[in-house]
């Protein structure tokens, strides 16, 4: 569904994303992990048109969408959420979600009905008339998710929707995301909360210094020495192996 | 949708000149509606769309000069001129928006560029011959409704009432339509709006064209009402400030804010001049009132009504 080949984003002398290649298959949940500053959000931004890639290509649903503006990419079926939540602060939750729903219908009543259905799906039906500015962190994260879903995407890019949530909130959100996948939406998520990655993703990519350094089923990269070193520093893999033997 | 408020307002506005027949009263009504119209024009871009302009006079002046020149040079009827000026206002609005937004100007930079455009237009009309230069243009007196010059002021009153009603109708539509929802999204958070599939450039150009068209209608009305325009008045900073002021005092981004703001500011403006002869005293009162309102009701006078509703709802 999504094929990324040799994608690079360069800021001055820094290769924030360095010839990254990856695939997301239709109907799966894929994960993107990596240490802070690895370039995960930059990669998402380059995929969704918020940043123009300097090298490489992005193919999505059979079309080359490299460098297209965000609104066209969204209309083609790929939508992102923001790590730092970006609510329409003075609008109600319903109005926030309706903005997404209006992508496919000019009808107010229809958009409003869709907003209600999606609010139920992500568990914020009680909050529909609340102003977005008054939501908790967990509420805002759900709102990001709901708004993106309202555009009826084929591929949903989630940028750390679990960050800042407490464990019970995370436990609540995991089935929501699984439900989204079962409804036919492919999911690609950036996540630091390993519990979430392990229980959700089927395929995980690890990004470090802009490069994809490992890939596989979630437990596989977690045991990969290269990945351990990327997270914990040079020599860490050896020390862990040594303590394991001792 | 609650149609009671607009319907009641319309009835009051229609009846007003039949109850208060004096010239002063009707002139007052015309001024209130006139400022409500151009305030609403500003509000549609600045309040609903979040594109704060400091140079809306550019559209006002475009409208005033467009219909006036068409009459004087080509012998057009001012009513056709009214339609033409709306087109010209929309065109100038779209043009300024396309130029500014193509280069990513936002916030105060956008405000400054609109101010620069208004000043450029003022200086150009001041210098060019076919706009009459600094002397301005004088429309010949030919009293007839067909000529948009009513023998009775009440004709002007109902004309401006129709235009203002249209502007309020557009504001109501914005509150309930997809276009309005998209504008609110852009105003609140442009990046999020783009992520959700909104072509922010296009929507912003559209709202500036709409706002420019409405504002130009106000310009033509002004030219027909006073039969004289000059660059300093119709393209001046004063006009731009008056528009954003009525909107801000009343409440930006609301349907009735500009009308409420216009009512209060026209009341204060006219009556302080009527009750005192002391030079500048009326301006001091006017200014103090502005400070008080902005200090205590930063969201505008509509907040007063909202507070009362909330209290009622609780009781």
Helix-strand layout with pairing:
The complex is a heterodimer of chains A (246) and B (315).
Chain A: E1 2-11, E2 14-24, E3 29-33, H1 40-47, E4 55-60, E5 63-64, H2 70-75, E6 78-80, H3 93-101, H4 108-121, H5 137-150, E7 155-159, H6 167-182, E8 186-190, H7 194-200, E9 203-208, E10 211-216, H8 219-223, H9 225-232, H10 236-245
Parallel strand pairs in A: 3-8, 3-9, 6-7, 7-8
Antiparallel strand pairs in A: 1-2, 1-4, 4-5, 9-10
Helix pairs in contact in A: 3-4, 3-5, 4-5
Chain B: H1 4-19, H2 23-48, H3 57-74, H4 78-102, H5 107-127, E1 137-138, H6 153-176, H7 178-188, H8 190-195, H9 200-226, E2 228-229, H10 231-234, H11 237-250, H12 257-275, H13 281-296, H14 302-314
Antiparallel strand pairs in B: 1-2
Helix pairs in contact in B: 1-6, 2-6, 2-9, 2-11, 2-12, 3-4, 3-5, 3-9, 4-9, 6-7, 6-9, 7-9, 11-12, 12-13
Write a structural description:
The complex is a heterodimer of chains A (246) and B (315). In chain A, strand 7 (155-159), helix 6 and strand 8 (186-190) form a beta-alpha-beta unit. The longest helix of chain A is centred in the last third of the chain and has 16 residues, at 167-182. Chain A has helices spanning 40-47, 70-75, 93-101, 108-121, 137-150, 167-182, 194-200, 219-223, 225-232, 236-245; strands spanning 2-11, 14-24, 29-33, 55-60, 63-64, 78-80, 155-159, 186-190, 203-208, 211-216. In chain A, helix 3 crosses helix 4 and helix 3 (93-101) packs parallel to helix 5. With 246 residues, chain A is an alpha/beta fold. Chain A has a 6-stranded mixed sheet, sandwiched between helices. A 4-stranded antiparallel sheet of chain A has the order 2-1-4-5, covered by helices on one side. By secondary structure, chain B is mainly alpha-helical. Chain B is built from 14 helices and 2 strands. Chain B has a two-stranded antiparallel sheet with strand order 1-2. In chain B, helix 3 (57-74) runs antiparallel to helix 4 (78-102) and helix 12 runs antiparallel to helix 13. The interface between A and B is medium-sized, with 30 and 19 residues.
